[in-house]
Design brief:
The chain is mainly α and about 170 residues long. It has one domain (about 1-155). The chain is built from six helices and no strands. The longest helix is centred in the middle third of the chain and has 31 residues, at about 60-90. It starts with a helix and ends in a 9-residue tail after the last helix.
């Protein structure tokens, strides 16, 4: 039971993290938008970089990108929190039903991993050369998210045996 409770709590914690990020991005829109703006505009990377042809300087497109980011984070929050709820509903079930109930949480964690890895490490970090920016380099925070999410995803994916009979 302890392992199941810990899996539920960890999935819920990732959902809560994503939910708080969504709330922060909405309630402090402009402050958080500045990050997206500078990464996409590539205006703080090395001055002699030849990669700036990739920059998106159109404000409308930058706002669309930010809306996609917020929507993805909201989807992560919803899937992880719903997944934790579904797991909680099957906490007393035998191993197979509990293992099948992991699907929603697995989708949420996988989306989270892909979002922070592809969105922030691959696209932000490499395509938009975020690593060159002293002020707007979000690779370290993204890596922390990837690590936490990845560990929870691996832990969740471990099969749960049947609970011992009482």
């Amino acid at each position: 039971m302890a392992v199941r409770l810990s899996k539920i709590a960890l999935v819920a914690a990732i959902g809560l993290l994503a939910l708080i990020i969504v709330v922060n991005n909405i309630t402090d829109y402009n402050t958080n938008f500045q990050y997206v703006y500078h990464v996409l505009a590539m205006d703080t990377i090395f001055p002699d970089s030849t990669l700036t042809w990739r920059a998106i300087r159109n404000p409308a497109l930058q706002h669309v990108a930010y809306a996609i980011i917020i929507a993805t984070e909201a989807t992560i929050a919803a899937l992880c929190l719903a997944g934790a709820g579904r797991l909680l509903q099957t906490i007393q079930a035998p191993g197979q039903p509990f293992n099948r109930a992991k699907a929603i949480a697995t989708y949420g964690l996988t989306l989270a991993f892909l979002f922070w890895f592809v969105g922030f490490m691959v696209l932000g970090g490499e395509w938009y050369a975020m690593w060159q920016s002293a002020d707007w380099n979000g690779q370290q925070p993204a890596f922390r998210f990837i690590g936490c999410v990845g560990l929870v995803l691996i832990y969740l994916s471990l099969a749960d045996p049947d609970l011992p009979s009482t």
